[in-house]
Amino acid sequence: MARNLNSNPLAATRSTQTLCSNWPCSFGPSGSRIAMSIATSNSGDLIERRSRLLKFTIGVSLVALLVAAGFAINRTHILKDRSQKISSGMPREQVEELLGKPYLVLPKGPRGTGELLVWTDNFWQVDVVIDEQDQVVTCRCVPANSWYRITQSKLSSLLQ
Fold first, then answer.
1. CA 20 to 30 Å from 85, out of 28, 97, 138, 152?
2. What number is the average pLDDT over the span 35-51?
3. Domains of the chain by range and CATH?
4. Backbone CA torsion sign across 116, 94, 76, 121
């Protein structure tokens, strides 16, 4: 037969006192030492659970960081490789199919005289000059002026 201890808190206290008085122990009739040991045990479990959760969170974060770094390193030459497929006279639409939407579009001069299209990532910058007929005039690929590239060059100069 199940008892609902929440209905009468005094009944729960009496049952704890009765339980303690029936046990041959030195905790006394109040059961306060048992309550303290239970509370201490629960707080120890709580600390252990929080510690495990913290370790798990740190582990997952490190794995996510390594995966992201792997993707970034793997993508080092994608923009450069795709830009090598661009040739003079190629239509703008075909260039945008290869490289995607440009990061920056600058007018070359007065309206209708062409544009400079710029694509960039952490490693490379591709500059494509388009004439008034929307065809490629020149294409160049240069190292990007990014935090990654600057850090990489400073570290490599330190190691040499």
1. 152
2. 69
3. 9-71 (no CATH), 78-159 (3.30.1450.10)
4. positive
